[in-house]
Amino acid sequence: IHPLLFERILLTKRLSTMAYNALVSKQREYFLSGATSSLKARKENLNKLKQLINENTDELCNAVYRDLRRDPRATVNLEIGNAIVEIDYMLSNLASWMEPTRVQKTHLTALDTPLVYKDPKGVVLIISPWNYPIAMILLPLIPAVAAGNTVIIKPSEISAHTAKAFEDIIPKYFNEEMMAVVSGGIPESTALLKERFDHILYTGCPPVAKVIMEAASKHLTPVTLELGGKCPVVVEDDADIETSAKRIVWGKWLNNGQTCLAPDYIMVSQKTKPRLLDAMRKVLVDFYTDEPKSSKDYSRIISERHFDRLVSLLDKTKGNHAVELGVPDREDLFIPPTILDVTREDVFMEDEIFGPILPVMTVSGVNDAIAYIKAGEKPLAAYIFTRSEDKVKKFLTETSSGAVTVNDVIMHLTVDTLPFGGVGNSGMGRYRGKYGFDTFTHEKAVLKRPFFGESLMAVRYPPMTDSKSAQ
Ligand code: NAD
């Protein structure tokens, strides 16, 4: 590297570090002034956010089209609609959630009032990924604002068009003391993480989550880590195979398989496998025609690097290509819908696939499938298709995952009264609805005491006597 260029990089880094420090200080000062914490301020900010989304839906969805070639109408359904619902949900519950809650007393505090106060945390950092580049910013942003915090957003540099759209739009609605976007990639993110935040919510992959957690530990900043993993699907012989196939295909090929909750692999018996493969092929053709490359509903891989990773796995797999509707095209970042019949040793059974390739593995039954899931890392979601309540019960009690949807995939995410988050390798912490409000709120224990009632407390005062210690 040329010395002058090196010097320039160092200077840019120093300048951005200074700018981030100034930005965080400005937000902290604003937060400490109390400007964000009243019910009125929180509602105003949420309404402004709603206005921002409504007035810029086209611009945001067109940016996602340029990043992922996803039909803007699908983006409205997948990323805009749920954000609006979330804001409305916050607006209608905020007043009661903010109220201090009374808790049960002990006999020693019979005359007192124990309460839990709901304090905002302060300056929140949201670091988001590229796969749902609107929702992965808005869904954590909404509860962070509802909880009375200021927010710095670091969008993914990989979904560059959407990142730029947010960078342009947010300053039109919010001053940077309240909400700011920091663009850039790993160097910017690394510099930003040197600052002290009051909460960090990161969405992405486990290796980077460790970097985030390490940086947060320097300031003892709490983190929420929303990660991915291999989400298993078990299809039992007693399931409605046609309906199962339709639901699995929808969830797998949505956003070209680049969904944290996408079915990663299927486990099915030898007996049911041919029917399931046949049904999934039919659904794929129904959804995307037999030439998905020309279908406007079929999205693309985000980048050449991600394309190359998937194609190199396709080169290495020993699985049988049960379904393959086209050939990969690097220029177009197109990988066809592909279903592989694989063994447990296959390369596709190692890491999260995050693409339009679905391995199907044979198991001897639900016990075998559960044992396989338990031997691996805990997934973000696990799915089972069956008519048997006993099998569902067994699956729910014997496996651990962030969530389970029975007889469908992904749909638990649409219920904002359910917590959303992982466990173990798929993450820590949760958000959505009240869980989101709680994540960005500090629950402060408060005990209010009157001046009377001293006799009740006499036991605590020295000098200690035998009769006091017996009480
Ligand atoms: P990523 O970690 O590469 O990027 C996410 C963000 O982290 C980006 O803003 C990026 O700039 C930043 N970043 C990357 N490396 C960094 C580093 N070394 N130091 C500091 N910051 C860094 O993740 P991705 O590839 O964008 O996301 C894909 C992953 O996200 C998948 O595993 C998927 O399953 C997961 N995901 C999870 C959820 C969820 O809610 N649980 C949702 C969407 C995606």
Automatic annotation (TrEMBL):
Q: Does the keyword ATP-binding apply?
A: no
Q: Which UniProt keywords apply?
A: Coiled coil, Membrane, NAD, Oxidoreductase, Transmembrane, Transmembrane helix
Please give a single GO biological process term from the UniProt record.
aldehyde metabolic process
Q: Which GO terms describe its cellular component?
A: cytoplasm
Per the record, the similarity remark reads:
Belongs to the aldehyde dehydrogenase family.
Q: Name one GO molecular function term.
A: aldehyde dehydrogenase (NAD+) activity
The protein, known as: Alh-4
Q: Does the keyword Transmembrane helix apply?
A: yes
